Amino acid sequence: MPRLILFNKPMYVLSQFTDRGSPTTRATLSDFIDVPGVYPAGRLDRDSEGLLLLTDDGKLQARIADPKFKLPKTYLVQVEGEPDETALKKLRKGVELKDGLTRPALTEIISDPHLWPRDPPVRFRKTVPDTWLRLTIAEGRNRQVRRMTAAVGHPTLRLVRWSIGDWSLDGLEPGKWCNAAIR
């Protein structure tokens, strides 16, 4: 029976089990997960938080990570400023990036999701408001969500991947993992 693990990756943890070639020691998955034979199904940037799926099944790993399967990934994104309808419409239609036009993203402004505290905290500026978005994409380019929000004039301050397909972080604390049912 294939194994699937849901992990709530804290900020500054690499999405791999080793850190080769770095002059300094950085946190990796091995600092949190001691399960032999599982590997990440996709990646999550070191400066991003949230759901990372790990499995010991190559076909399942491909189904989760390969963009051709268009598995939706939902992010809670704190951005600088207050996006207007024009910025939201661009995200919803697709944003032109250096590597081409993105697929449309389901995008909505949401109230503060009251997540766990981040370490280090997001820099607060009295003169610059921030806004939370729920953004769902079905592709996975390098740093895509950050590049999309920056392209519409609202740089990302905090990025938390909340769900991948039907799997979500609901009830899973940062740095913790659990076994999941394969759907």
Automatic annotation (TrEMBL):
Would you say which domain of life the source belongs to? Bacteria
Which part of the chain is the Pseudouridine synthase RsuA/RluA-like domain? 4-151
Keywords of this protein's UniProt record, alphabetized?
A: Isomerase
Record's protein name:
Pseudouridine synthase
Top enzyme category: isomerase
Q: EC number(s)? A: 5.4.99.-
> Which PANTHER family does the record match to this protein?
PSEUDOURIDINE SYNTHASE FAMILY PROTEIN-RELATED (PTHR47683), RNA-BINDING S4 DOMAIN-CONTAINING PROTEIN (PTHR47683:SF2)
The protein's matches in InterPro entries, at most eight in alphabetical order, are given as: PsdUridine_s_RsuA/RluB/E/F_cat, PsdUridine_synth_cat_dom_sf, PsdUridine_synth_RsuA/RluA, PsdUridine_synth_RsuA/RluB/E/F, PsdUridine_synth_RsuA/RluB_CS, RsuA_PseudoU_synthase, TruA/RsuA/RluB/E/F_N
Per the record, the similarity remark reads: Belongs to the pseudouridine synthase RsuA family.
Q: State the species of origin.
A: Erythrobacter westpacificensis
